[in-house]
Design a protein that fits this description.
The chain has 521 residues and is an all-alpha fold. The chain has 30 helices and three strands.
């Protein structure tokens, strides 16, 4: 059995918020969502147990599924079906679970941001299980289309289930109808071409692919399919041409405005390390792009390098520095790296670069990230970045995350180290509050309420010292660390994440830094 850790699963939280927004969720739902965002899944489930309507079922089912109990999630959804249009959201969530199981099979399971792969023991039985799950997904689509025959979401999902079951002709008819209803959608035409190819209708597929490229000249998958088609008919020139274009657009991030040319393709080959020969010159190529950083294409290539996060060190740091030094010209690219980051490291570097520029545009996405930035060690540093920018709209969400009056209990079973992650996030939020001098009276009052909480007293004392410069709070920080070093590391990380007020920050760092004598031990 092999378990790997997935990047932060934002889907759960995105859907929870979407449901709340679309249905006017009650405060109970909002509390459950907040608990879920903090990793407190059991508490969130307990709050929602005994669902009374569609909204409750959707939230509770999503939580059970995220907690590794998809069968229980389906039970909750199916128990709420009423055979009317109110079933549509419940059926959509059922479809999602069945389709995922039909794709992955019984040897793959998910729980709280991790995926577990068990060894295959009976391939035939596993294939049969996958097919049965996909058939159930198809039944769900059928139920929904009885209620609303023209529903585009379920028509599309039915096509996906048919493709998985290799019923290509039926899938093609559905996709053809959808593309006729939405003739501007290159993606639908591209999918239709793929189904034609899988079903053996090559001429129809090529027609679709050419139309797709007219609508979306950056469609990497369309170029890839054309390359494979021409390879099949032994047209080497077109095979190579479309293969090169596919490789280029597969590597270029969605936000990158770059057009395929022979020169751009050559740069892409080097930066992506597609071939061993090309990869040799990567450092020199990055240096050339930095030297030419006033050229907009050079900046975009540097941003693309950062986006892929393949170089976890000097090259990536140089690229980020070059984008930051471009000032306002680099802000849009850094912002895109923040909001589309596939790696926490990429998002953090982009966030910190924007924070150093006091970029107001970064405030909203950082606030959105804040309640989810509860990892242990690897974080986006959202709280520290908000402190550097100093926008007062961050005060309320920082207070909510710090939750200075609440004392959390550490679970007996905590394999993902969620408790320490949550505590570290609260420390970062509390310390960040100490930088908002414009709200001093409010924050002083709020932070003092945390002084009676043994878990948060140290962070609140540090924040109050940053905020007021009161020597009493500094002495208390020193005393608390001497008495109990439990949260020394969390506090040191939180203090390092901020920049102002610099003198008080440095005083705290001297207090919380681990003595050299202990490091040597």
């Amino acid at each position: 059995m092999r378990t790997i850790i997935l990047k932060r699963d934002l889907l759960l939280f995105t859907l929870l918020f979407a449901v709340a927004a679309s249905t006017g969720a009650a405060s109970r739902h909002e509390q459950a969502m907040e608990l879920a965002n903090q990793g407190r899944i059991e508490e969130s489930i307990k709050l929602l147990e005994g669902p009374e309507g569609t909204d409750e079922r959707l939230l509770l089912s999503r939580l059970y599924d995220y907690d590794g109990q998809p069968e229980r999630a389906v039970e909750i959804l199916e128990a709420g079906l009423l055979d009317d249009v109110s079933d549509m959201y419940l059926l959509a969530q059922c479809f999602e679970i069945f389709a995922r199981q039909g794709k992955d099979g019984p040897t793959v399971s998910y729980k709280r941001g991790s995926v577990c792969y068990s060894p295959s023991k009976d391939a035939a039985a596993e294939d049969a299980w996958k097919r049965e799950r996909m058939e159930r997904a198809l039944v769900v689509c059928g139920k929904a289309l009885v209620l609303i025959p023209e529903d585009e979401y379920f028509r599309y999902q039915k096509a996906q289930a048919l493709i998985a079951l290799e019923r290509f002709d039926e899938a093609a008819e559905l996709l053809k109808g959808l593309s006729e209803s939405d003739p501007d959608s290159a993606e639908l035409i591209n999918e239709l071409a793929s189904v034609y190819l899988q079903g053996g209708s090559t001429n129809e597929a090529v027609k679709c692919l050419n139309v797709c490229i007219e609508k979306d000249p950056r469609s990497a998958s369309a170029y890839r399919m054309l390359s494979e088609f021409y390879s099949g008919i032994k047209d080497d020139e077109k095979t190579e041409q479309y293969s090169r274009m596919a490789e280029f657009y597969e590597w270029i991030p969605p936000f990158a405005e770059l057009t395929f040319t022979s020169n751009n393709a050559a740069v892409c080959d080097v930066l992506s390390g597609r071939t061993e020969e090309a990869a040799v010159g990567k450092e020199a190529q990055v240096d050339n792009l930095i030297a030419d950083v006033e050229n907009s294409d050079a900046m975009v290539f540097l941003a693309a390098l950062c986006y892929h996060h393949a170089d976890h060190g000097t090259l990536e740091e140089k690229a980020f520095k070059a984008l930051e030094e471009r000032g306002e010209a680099g802000v849009p690219l850094l912002f895109n790296l923040l909001v589309s980051a596939e790696s926490v490291c990429t998002g953090r570097q982009a966030a910190e670069a924007l924070a150093r520029q006091k970029c107001q545009m970064a405030v909203a996405p950082l606030i959105e990230l804040l309640p989810m930035d509860t990892r242990w060690i690897w974080t986006y540093n959202a709280a520290g970045c908000l402190a550097q920018i100093g926008d007062v709209s961050a005060v309320e969400p920082l207070l909510k995350l710090a939750d200075v009056e609440t004392e959390l209990s550490k679970p007996d079973d905590d394999p993902m180290n969620g408790f320490n992650g949550r505590m570290a996030a609260r420390y970062r939020a509390a310390v960040a509050l100490g930088t908002f001098d414009s709200d001093r009276e409010l924050l002083e009052r709020k932070l003092k309420t945390g002084l009676s909480n043994p878990q948060m007293e140290l962070a609140c004392r540090a924040a109050l010292y940053l905020l007021t410069g009161d020597e009493e709070h500094k002495k208390a920080v020193a005393r608390l660390i001497e008495e109990d070093e439990t949260y020394r590391f969390e506090l040191e990380c939180a203090v390092r994440a901020i920049e102002e007020p610099q003198e008080r920050r440095n005083v705290l760092l001297d207090l919380v830094k681990e003595p050299e004598s202990k490091k040597k031990q």
